[in-house]
Amino acid sequence: MREYELSILFHPDLELNLSPAIERVEKTIADLGGAITSKTEEGRKKLAYQIAKNDSAIFYYYDVQLDPSSVAKLDRALVLMSEVIRHLVVASDPKVIEARAARESEKKEAKDSKEEA
Question: Rounded CA gap, 104 and 54, in Å?
Fold first, then answer.
């Protein structure tokens, strides 16, 4: 399994009831044998240009572990979802993955040292 970064722009009209769309995306990833390692919600933002006649979108970012053969299936599933107005799946840079793991271990060590004190 490889690490991928998934960026999704959801339709802005879903702001009040976004959870079904998020669950659908996460279920699709799980059905393809993937695992979500982290999820970041950036909220509603204004777009630089209109996409599907929308001036804004709700931004979500996922770090996903997925089999390389399943990436095309995920891409196709996201294209077919009416809630998603744009998405992008890219392979994570190994240097970024190592740096992220180092930061997390430093945070854990700092937390452990605070608990001991």
Answer: 37
d(CA 12, CA 19) in angstroms, rounded, equals 13
- φ and ψ at residue 81, rounded to 5 degrees: -80, 125
Angle between helices 19-31 and 71-80 (to 10 degrees): 150
Q: Tell me how many degrees the CA angle 72-98-101 measures, rounded to the nearest 5.
A: 100
The tokens for 20 are 């079904």
Query: What's the CA gap between 4 and 52, in Å, rounded?
Result: 26
pTM: 0.79
Structure-token match 């605070």, residue found:
114
Which CA distances in Å does 94 have to 3, 99, 111?
Answer: 9, 9, 26
Q: Taking the C-alpha atoms of 43, 101, 107 and 45 in order, what is their torsion angle to the nearest 10 degrees?
A: -10
pLDDT in tens, 28-66: 999 999 999 889 999 899 999 999 899 999 999 999 999
